[in-house]
Amino acid sequence: MSKQSIFGRISQLAKANINALLDSAEDPAVMLDQMVRDYTNSISEAESAIAETIGNLRLMEQDHAEDITNAQDWGSKAIAASRKGDELRAAGNTADADKFDNLAKVALGRQLSAEKEARTAEPTIASQTVVVDQLKKGLDAMRGKLSQLSAKRDELIARSKTVKAQAQVQDAVKSIDLLDPTSEISRFESKIRREEARVAGQQELASSSLDAQFEQLDASDEQVELDARLAALKAGAPAAKAVTSGE
Hints:
The structure is a single chain. The chain folds into 2 domains: 3-176; 180-236. Helices cover 91% and strands 0% of the residues. The protein has 4 helices and no strands. The protein starts with a helix and ends in a 13-residue tail after the last helix.
């Protein structure tokens, strides 16, 4: 499985989920939490795919190592059979010498086959090793992005709450402007002033009534004096001497 096929499919899935969230987002916290979950799931899917790719590579490496070992073993067997044939031929036992020479050829054939399989697998192993290295780097990059997304989540949510609070304040200010509470205060102030004026009028009226009472009292005193003088006059008593200014 290639790097492009793994990350391409996962990237398309993640983008589709994120775009759907952005289109239907109402609560930023819910949206960001879902994005973190989707990205985490994408990483999990990538890990599974990469693990399978690595597993296949390790199997090829094991088969290659086994082919190398088999080639060495068959080479050793070919040498042993050839030496045994040489010994038998030197002893004059040509028939048995030929048998061991034939065994040596069989062993050499097996050695060639194992070496061929090993050489055939080497380019594939090399290319898959490069792919696995790329996949590991890509997975590390995805994990780094997830870490950034998780760290960014709190900041974005805090900013979203701040914006929401600012919007609420602005709405409240607009409502205050529309209601204009100062007009209500002016009405209440006018009412107080009228009440103050009414009380002041009552006080002024009460003061005027008091002055009138004193004036009546003064008038009564003068009448008493006049009546006394008239009585004295009628009785023949001398009238009281008028008080002149300056005395």
